[in-house]
Structure formats: C-alpha cells, structure tokens
Amino acid sequence: MLGWLASGQDRVPRVVGPTKSGKERKVPLTTSLEAALRGIRHARGPRVFWNPDGKPFSIWQLHERLWGACRRAGLRRIRWHDIRHSFASQLVIAGTPLRQVQEWLGHSTITMTMRYAHLAPGGGREYLAALDPNHGNLTAIQGGAARSLA
C-alpha cells in the first residue's frame, strides 16, 4: 500500500507493507513523485488513494487505474510487476549497488536480485584495474613481509 508515514512534524508518502512475505517494507520515493503525491493528499486516512466513500481501492480498481493511465499515455497495457521490474532495472543501470536494490525490492536473498546484474554499467570491468600490477594497490607477502608489486 502507498501510505503516509510520520516524519518529524510532517507526514510523507512512503510505500509500506505488509508485503507478499508478510514483512513491512519502506521504499523511498523520488522528490518529484513525493511532491506530486502531496498535491493530491487528503485527510481521510493513512492511505494515499481512496474511493470517494473513504474506502481503499480494491486490487481491481488499482489495475483499472494503471491501465487507464497507460491508455492515456499511449502505452501498451502493463502489469504492476512490470513497474517493479522497471524500478529495479533503472536502479541497476544507474549504478545502484545490488544490495540496495535487494533491500528496496524486499528480496530475501541476493540471488533474486542478481537477475538484474547484467544491466550494471561496465559489467564489473572497472574492478579489474585493481588486479593490474601497474595499478599500485597490489601487495604480495614474501617471507612474512609485505612488498608492493608496483
């Protein structure tokens, strides 16, 4: 659910649980999304989106809202999980550490998050420089004493 969490003297929108696993999760929002949500804020309860009668949207109403937004934007119909996948992909492409992506997605193991690893910039090649003897960071242990390989 997307709800309002208390933060100091103000309430801010945050994605909160319970989740599929039953654990609560908090996911930060971008500044621009937070500002947009504040623009539609109401005082009827802890959730951001409500029916006119004050009851929360059903899952089908949420699907209809998503599909309507896709139609108005000229996009094909997508699923909520597609948005989740895009969220993860965009974070990894931007260089966000996989452990952080794992936390925000709520994956219990890094294995689930690793499906996005191929999207990471450079594919890890930037770390190979540490193995280059000319890099200056390598040391070897010889006779109990460390000596630089550079």
Structure characterization notes:
The chain has a domain at 1-57. It has five helices and four strands, in the order E-E-H-H-H-H-H-E-E. The chain has helices spanning 31-39, 59-73, 80-93, 98-105, 110-113; strands spanning 2-7, 10-15, 139-142, 145-148. A two-stranded antiparallel sheet has the order 1-2. The longest helix is centred in the middle third of the chain and has 15 residues, at 59-73. The model has no long low-confidence stretch (mean pLDDT 78).
List descriptors.
5 helices, alpha+beta, 150 residues, two-stranded antiparallel ribbon
Strand arrangement, major sheet:
1-2
> Number of helix segments?
5
Query: What class would the helix/strand composition place it in?
Result: alpha+beta
* Overall pLDDT metric: 78
Report the C-alpha radius of gyration, rounded: 22 Å
Task: Draw up the topology in text.
Blueprint: E1 2-7, E2 10-15, H1 31-39, H2 59-73, H3 80-93, H4 98-105, H5 110-113, E3 139-142, E4 145-148
Antiparallel strand pairs: 1-2, 3-4
Compact overview of the structure:
The protein is elongated, with a radius of gyration of 22 Å.
